[in-house]
Amino acid sequence: MSNDDKFKKVISHAKEYGFIFQSSEIYDGLSAVYDYGQNGTELKNNIKDYWIKAMVQLNENIVNIDSAILMHPTIWKASGHVDAFNDPLIDNKDSKKRYRADVLVEEHVAKIENNILKEISKAKKKFKENFDSDQFLSTNPRVVGYKSEINKIIETFNKVLENDDLVGLKKLIEDLEIVCPISGSKNWTDVKQFNLMFGTKLGASTENATDLFLRPETAQGIFVNFLNVQKTGRLKIPFGIAQIGKAFRNEIVARQFIFRMREFEQMEMQYFIKPGTQKEWYSKWKETRLAWHLSLGLGKENYRFHDHQKLAHYADAACDIEFDFPFGFKELEGIHSRTDFDLSSHEKYSSKKIKYFDPLSNESYTPYVLETSIGLDRMFLAVFSKSLIEEELADGSKRVVLKIPKILAPKKIAILPLLKKDGLPELSKKIIEEFKWDFNTVYDEKDAIGRRYRRQDALGTPFCLTVDHQSLNDGTVTIRDRDSMIQERMKLDEVKLKIKNELDIKTWLSF
Ligand code: GAP
Q1: Fewest Cβ atoms nearer than 10 Å: which of 138, 220, 457, 494?
Q2: 140: pLDDT confidence band, cut at 50, 70 and 90?
């Protein structure tokens, strides 16, 4: 199945099973805005919980806040967003479609990289066990040619980005003969900068209204509360402030489902540290965040670090954790060493002293900041897309199963009476009464048992408990595991213990 087909399946499965709907669908939708359905909301909440537990509950020196979306407009001047939160856009004059100029170049490079992968796969087939990857990459004339082409493009690309050279960026697009995917033409406008913040107004009358922005990141709500939290919490450096909340960006190219949205959620943590220690904390948080991702068991091969060549105005080091989405490796989380840029800038713009007094060294200083920032919706897409599997079974039949990490599954247990009579539904309901205090449980009595198993597989429910006539006699049920499909008969107490063990947060998060 091609990546494109796989991605289409992800989108349709998300809708069919109540995970994600297009926003305002009955009015033909709103571009790049989505609603989470009954199962999507559970999965999203479980991801948030998994992040909060790892970042806040397990770290005595990290606290959680919830700041407002509407903030004083000067904050966005101080943060640099008013002047520098821009994307370079370009229009195709024939199709009238708008693109991010930098993304057009990146996609062109990705195509050449793909050609290299194709050559590798051909050579692997040809040379079989004699294939030597290093030798092939350094000597095959076609691959060497592709690599040198990529290096030349990247060199020019970095130069024009560093110099904010919009004319140079357009020239690069023309030199590479990049065409519009819709019209197929090279008839491009000039490249322009476009600010991504959404404006809104505060106030009852137009004359007195104040222009505000919907926050484009949650981080600034943390910076402007630095002193409030540090003082009231009597926190000592190093310490962190975490926050989960909505952010808004008027993205130019809002494609790829929930990967790039105009309204989305971030899970951010600012770690306040002593100046000079940023390198050490940068490595530490890179390692810690990757370990968090790996703890979910989606496969080590699906993650990689990408170091930023062009640093944002606030950073002295930055990288992304990239994930292998259905459309290739893309940014999932950012880790940024933000220096003292934000706190110093807010000190300047607010004229309020924002310093930390270090009781150990008896000195006052502006703390440096190490940031980890992950998009909740992107994390959702990573988990959902990697977990959606079509399996061929031993009897030749197929099943669609959502092998979501069990700890994140929307419902943990489905209770299924084998028949809709003989007291089996009543006993099943009693079991729900007993289990619902510990686990998110669902009841299903419609259709044959095999179809119900398939339905729960497609929803990602890790355990199905089937209640049959023997259950009435000896209090046992069968427990079916979603992934192995193995069924075991057990007493209810044993079932509870088994599920508790499998969902034990300590086991999941001990890394
Ligand atoms: N405070 C730093 C910051 O906001 P960012 O790299 O712009 O950094 C952090 O964003 C994360 O937010 C990204 O790694 C991504 O997961 C998520 N994100 C950014 N823009 C997004 C969008 N339009 N839709 C969904 N997620 C987005």
Answers
A1: 138
A2: very high
Query: What is the rounded average pLDDT of the residues 290-319?
Result: 93
Structure tokens at 437: 């205090």
Burial 461-473 (b: 16+ CB within 10 A, else e): bbbbbbbbeebee
How many angstroms is it from 33 CA to the middle of ligand 1? 15
Reply yes or no on whether the pLDDT at 162 is more than 90.
no
DSSP per-residue string spanning 195-213: E-PPEEEESSSTTTPEEEE
CA-proximal residue: ligand 1, atom 21 (nearest): 260
Ligand 1, pocket-test mutation among 215, 378, 379, most atoms within 8 A of CB = 378
User: Quick one: average pLDDT of 119-145?
Assistant: 92
CB 305 within 8 A of CB 335: no
Placement of tokens 């050559």 in the chain: 119
Summarize pLDDT for 355-378 with one digit per residue, the tens.
999 998 899 999 999 999 999 999
pTM: 0.90
Rounded to an integer, what distance in angstroms lies between the CA atom of residue 42 and that of residue 462? 14
Would you call 394 helix, strand, or coil by DSSP?
Answer: coil
Contact present, 333 and 321 (Cβ < 8 Å)? yes
DSSP string, 220-232: HHHHTTHHHHHHH
State the DSSP code for 23: T
